[in-house]
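Posting for a labmate who doesn't have an account.
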Amino acid sequence: MQLAIQDLQKKLKAENCFWSYSEDSVKDIPDDILIEKTLVYLDLPEIDTLFQIFPYKQIKKVWLEQMVPQGEYLFTLNRFLAWYYFHIKRPDQYLKAMTTRHLNKMFS
C-alpha cells in the first residue's frame, strides 16, 4: 500500500501538482490532499488505485467536501466521477443539490 501511495505521489509530482510544497513535505501529504489531487490531475488507472488504497467512504467524503463545492470549475469532472465511480443515477441534479447544501452550510 505504501508503495502505491508513493507511486501516486511521484505521478502527481511529475504533473507539477506540488509546486508549492517543499521537497521534503511532499512525502507527508495528508490523505485528503492526495485523494483530491489524484481525482483532479491523474487518469483512470491512478484513480482506480485510490479505491484500492483508501475506503470508498473516505474518497467520496473528500470529493463531496473539496471538489463538488467548486461548482462550474470542476463540473464536467465531477459529473463523470459521480456517474462512474460513485454510481449516482442523476449526476447533474445530485451535484446541484450537494453544491446548494454546501452553500447553505456556509451561510447558516
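Reply:
Got it, the C-alpha cells are right above this. The chain has two domains: 1-54, 56-108.
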